[in-house]
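#onboarding

Welcome to the new folks! Below is a worked example of what a typical request in this channel looks like: someone posts a single protein sequence, and someone else replies with the predicted structure as tokens. Don't worry about understanding the tokens yet, we'll cover that in week two.

Example request:
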Amino acid sequence: MTDLPHDMMLRPRSSDATREAFWGELQTYLEAEVRPGFRAHYQDVVEPRLVSDLGRIPDRCEIAAAMREYQPNRAWYVARTEAQRQAFDASRTIVDGHIDELATRAAALGNGPAMIELDPSLPFPAYIQTDAHNMVGGYEDLGRHHPLAAGATYDRALSVHRVAAMGPLVDDVGHSIAARLQQVFPDFVPKRILELGCTVGHTLLPFKAAFPDAEVIGVDVSGPCLAFGAARASALGAAVTFSQRNAEHTGYPDGSFDLVFSRILLHETCEAATRAVFAECHRLLRPGGIMFHSDAPQFDELDPYDQSLRDWDINFNAEPFMGGYYAMDLEDEFARAGFRRDAMFRLVAPSLIVQRGYRAEATRTRGGRYFLAGAVK
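Example response:
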């Protein structure tokens, strides 16, 4: 890393940087160059056999099970899992080796403009995986409990491991989705915005940029992510608030927000929690307010083979609720939460940096587009 994207990003020793970059590049190579080649084997060999045996088109679970018997794909599973673990370990080694410097930088940024509200008594949801994404300690930093390290590691994971596939500040998703919302709802100017499960603010800050006059708040259950996120936001000059709250029951008053959203949160939550989040969104929104949730596309947006590719994440990347969330009928769940069906929407937001020819396009899925679904109250 030559130019650091913000003052809370650490500059490692060259040997540590080389190790980190290697595992990041390997993940990208395995995803972008190796895995796509397995589709031909499925279409030519596996699919005809499954259709003959089953007498019908196979579902995602049947495809995944059959493809796990294909030796190159089995090797891919092993390599991809180890690359994920080693990448997080490489980044955590850098963070732990500079932890005092990180704390000093955070303290120097403590007077704003970002604000933080921590609640150490807030229970950490039992369903959240302790090693989510094969990151030891997970978002809570279980067993380590440094107030900044988990957030710093997560920030590096997205900005370094995937070769900055969403830009150096990992903010392409936020900018792209905000631009798409402004295009679809040109008269919508929210005064108060809430992100649920904001982690370190990668998506939160672009919404402050898109709506500079709005009060912008991000909530998360992870104190370490919020602490790092607030310091990072201050380093970037963003006047946003990070608050330690549970997205299922935030504690904010009824009808107190114009826009409530999440990004890659709900595939980490169990079914009951997801439904509670939808209900909470409805409660929090003012009439005419907008809710949306952005994640990978639902299964009903994909063919069965593409659905089956989530098998690795579900079974080997500590994301066990992913299959249940992507199989949900979102419109039914939004209606259950109180939203009108005629006010619901699904959108695809084109990646702004991919449109500008950004080099990491090959690391993206579905051509540099972000899926989101939501509703107007």
